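Work Package 3 (structural annotation) set out to generate three-dimensional models for the target panel prioritized at the project kickoff. During this period the team completed the workflow that converts sequence records into discrete structure tokens, so that structures can be stored uniformly alongside our sequence database. As a representative example, we reproduce one entry of 497 residues exactly as it appears in the project archive.
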Amino acid sequence: MRARETLMACAIALAAQPCTAAAVRASPEDAMLRKLEAKLEEVERRVQSLEETRRALEAERQELRAERDQLRAREDALADAEEALPQEHAPPATAEADAPETSDERVPRVAAWLDRFRLSGNADLVYWNGEHRSFADSGQFSVENARMFLDVDIAQDLRVRDHVVADAASFYIEWDMFRWGEFKNKIGSLYGRFDGLFGLAPLNLKFGQMPIVFGEEYVRFSEGRPDNPLITFSAANPYNWDQGAMLFGANQRRSLEYVIQVMNGEAGEPINGDVQVSGKLTARPRPWAQVSLSGLHTGELGDGENPAKAALKFSGTFIVPFGSGTSVPNFQNGRAIPDDPDLKLDTMNAAEVDVVLSNGTWGRLWLGYGWLGIRSAGSSTYDRNLQYGVAEGVLELGALARMLDPLYLASRYSFMGTFDSDEGYRLGAMDDGDDLGFNTENLSIVSLGLGLRLGQSIVLKSEYAWYDFDLVRGTSAELRRQARDRDFFGIDLSYRF
């Protein structure tokens, strides 16, 4: 009996041995997995801690800035009060008081006063050359862009009695010396800004003349111009300035932003009183991803005596009644038609959706699609629906080889048109598309560029652009020939300060 029990115990031990060995073999993997999970939890805690620290530092910075501005305001008020004191109440004169203020004593006061001013600017010096029907057929140098920006802090903690009106007030002006290679010497933006209305950080106001916030490209026509990886813009490039008011803001993490604008909506004179309403909503679900949706609606445009002209430009040209501003015959459904006899536009509507993906090491990808609807105040024959889109990519060559770090490759494909062979519109003003009249069915542009960053403030850009104009049915063979041979290239020295 005892021998049988001993044999059974040995059998059980032998049967259990492989399981024990398997468990032993598995234990290092389990241990490594647990270590990785612990490290991941530690990284997540550190990221959360850093984010909390960043928010705390930002709040502290805002508080210090507010305290600084309050001290400045008190100093100014005390200085004004001292000057207003009657002479008999003034402190007795002393040799020290009568002594002139030294340069060392004046410098801190001047430096503190200058802190309120922020001056910046950008410029583009370009050489263009291209095919014989392009705008640069014989080669030309151009001061393509030159502008300066001044942002001035006016006041902090604006109150009426004990009620907060705004946390801060500032004034902004943009002086454009050159635009599109032409000397302008005129004002771009000029507005007052109030941050933190009624003490609410997400509620801010601009009032005056400012860029129309629509899509993602409008910023490249102002302070963000040097951020354009290429020299030119997309086929649609919606942008312009207008006068009105803008409410804007973001949540605390800036993962959600909004803009609402109410503006005149007209570039022509006189302005008929109907307003333009536009808005943009931007979401950042991840640090590397951004999605935005823009929309715009105008009221009636024009006064019936002069051709209507919408404030927001598309494809480098103003939106006007069909046929206005050109002597080129119009074609529709394969035959010539007259200009729209009604000089007003009933409305203009537009919408755009954009996705931007960015990676600090590899580069950036921008995808956008939009729609534009133009409605005549007269016959629907002259109504137009246009579509447009863009795909732009930037590859940082430093991600491939460290020695290529200052270089990047950029490419863009964009298009705009009715995509209806019976209906066209005026497109592509940068490449003299105006001389094709309202007969362009669609315009597509392919651009390829190489950029070299010469430090933080200067970029040397080069670009070759292929332009393709498709015209509607019925246009003459001569007009179709004029639509060809419009490719060009450029070299740009882009500055910012």
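Residues 1-26, 84-101 have pLDDT under 50 and may be disordered.
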